[in-house]
Amino acid sequence: MDSRVSELFGGCCRPGGGPAVGGTLKARGGSTSGCGGPKGKKKNGRNRGGKANNPPYLPPEAEDGNIEYKLKLVNPSQYRFEHLVTQMKWRLQEGRGEAVYQIGVEDNGLLVGLAEEEMRASLKTLHRMAEKVGADITVLREREVDYDSDMPRKITEVLVRKVPDNQQFLDLRVAVLGNVDSGKSTLLGVLTQGELDNGRGRARLNLFRHLHEIQSGRTSSISFEILGFNSKGEVVNYSDSRTAEEICESSSKMITFIDLAGHHKYLHTTIFGLTSYCPDCALLLVSANTGIAGTTREHLGLALALKVPFFIVVSKIDLCAKTTVERTVRQLERVLKQPGCHKVPMLVTSEDDAVTAAQQFAQSPNVTPIFTLSSVSGESLDLLKVFLNILPPLTNSKEQEELMQQLTEFQVDEIYTVPEVGTVVGGTLSSGICREGDQLVVGPTDDGCFLELRVCSIQRNRSACRVLRAGQAATLALGDFDRALLRKGMVMVSPEMNPTICSVFEAEIVLLFHATTFRRGFQVTVHVGNVRQTAVVEKIHAKDKLRTGEKAVVRFRFLKHPEYLKVGAKLLFREGVTKGIGHVTDVQAITAGEAQANMGF
Hints:
- The chain is an alpha+beta fold and 601 residues long.
- It has four domains: 67-162, 2-Layer Sandwich (Translation Initiation Factor IF3), CATH 3.30.110; 170-394, Rossmann fold (3-Layer(aba) Sandwich); 398-493, Elongation Factor Tu (Ef-tu), domain 3 (Beta Barrel); 501-588, Beta Barrel (Elongation Factor Tu (Ef-tu), domain 3), CATH 2.40.30.
- The chain contains 13 helices and 30 strands.
- The strands form six sheets. It has an eight-stranded mixed β-sheet with strand order 7-6-8-5-9-10-12-11, sandwiched between helices. An eight-stranded antiparallel β-sheet has the order 17-16-22-13-14-21-18-19.
- Helix 10 packs parallel to helix 11 (381-390).
- The longest helix is centred in the first third of the chain and has 17 residues, at 78-94.
- The protein is globular, with a radius of gyration of 25 Å.
- It starts with 6 loop residues before the first helix and ends with a helix.
- It holds the Pfam family GTP_EFTU.
- Belongs to the TRAFAC class translation factor GTPase superfamily. Classic translation factor GTPase family. EF-Tu/EF-1A subfamily.
- InterPro entries: EF-Tu_GTPase, GTPBP1-like, P-loop_NTPase, T_Tr_GTP-bd_dom, Transl_B-barrel_sf, Transl_elong_EF1A/Init_IF2_C.
- One of its GO terms (biological process) is rescue of stalled ribosome.
């Protein structure tokens, strides 16, 4: 991690914004390839009507992944058709229920294109293939290419989507970041309720969890909202569904928004949401009339530090002139190109841009799409919906399969008591598979023990679910298990795992910002996954003190109770303006008896 990311935490950006990295990426009118591949030599390229030719090459087709190239699919034999169906099943499996077909493209990425009749026949064959596997197809865009022909030839990009065989929809988690009063909750209210805001915050009222949030208009807790897309790419939200169960039943793809707090007073809540809920990506909201202000820079720094991919939405464009919006976008571009970010901004101004942005965002961690919209007038809101609909899973199927083969580990993030149900915990399954009736152990308790319990039932997005797989978030009902024995930061694991606990651990850190020097005895709040606890610095190896931007291996000791940590886990610590990041390099495992002695039991 570049230590210069500390500029985002500790001070204002330097004048000039640093050297540009690749410039601002634009894809207007289909002039940029959907996959951003290398440009090759043009063959007999013509310039009809004065329009620039499309790049003649995409990247060569990959064996893995959910993108398939097909030159044409005209009247295949029965044997060939069955082979094509098997191929489609593989691509859908790689994309966890989604695949993208490029028709008119050779396997080496050459954009050949098809005449209108051949394209029509190919799409008809593709539709038959999708019906065979229980999927729907949606044409994303068509582009005209010039290649050795005077007749117009086109390539067509098609989205194939189905409900996975296990009847569990594709779920992407998006953390929503941004300064206070930038319109985060209002935007989520508009997306999930299907009604525009009245300019006074009406759309956000259904998202607030506490009375003081309604009175102040400011989010202080973490809330979850869902937006669905069916197999045809149509939006499914509360405007045509009364309950979350109906949304889940009608959707092939779900976007779960994690609405985080923007006020600096609730920064610890925002950090907890980013570290414990494992979002696939983040949405950074910036108000057009204020620009980068308040905690915006700090939230950007958190996303970079935790390596969470993010895209930017500039809101409230109805409140200011076009020149003000352009000035805010330029300000964002300068910050994104700074050495600490190394991002390539991509301004989205059309539906074609939105499709390109979704594909580029998934393939390159450096691309950062920028949307400009209004939650009151609805201007450009559809572009954001197109982006979210096309956005593929950011983790591949092999990684998920490897996690599913490991022993069960569920992180406890929330604890509730539900009438007639009992104790309920919410969190994320980081590895393995969890089923109704499973016997697990939960801990560590304050005295370092793990307690046995049974999973009575499971719910995902407020609808019943019998099986929970690695990477999925859910709530688990534990029956009459005593809630007083539970706390945030615990884990529920398989008894075979024989979990270890620690009070002392070492981490390799980068001090992002500190006003003076970072020394032994300094106390900080440590965030490691769902763990959040005060720890004291016991030792800084090979150094007496640290200054901003310096690296070292540091030994920490938890002050209150032992925790369950894993080597390699990402770490973030803070205390006032002091902030640092790193990863756990060693844990000193202790027994329950040693934990009781250390903690004074």
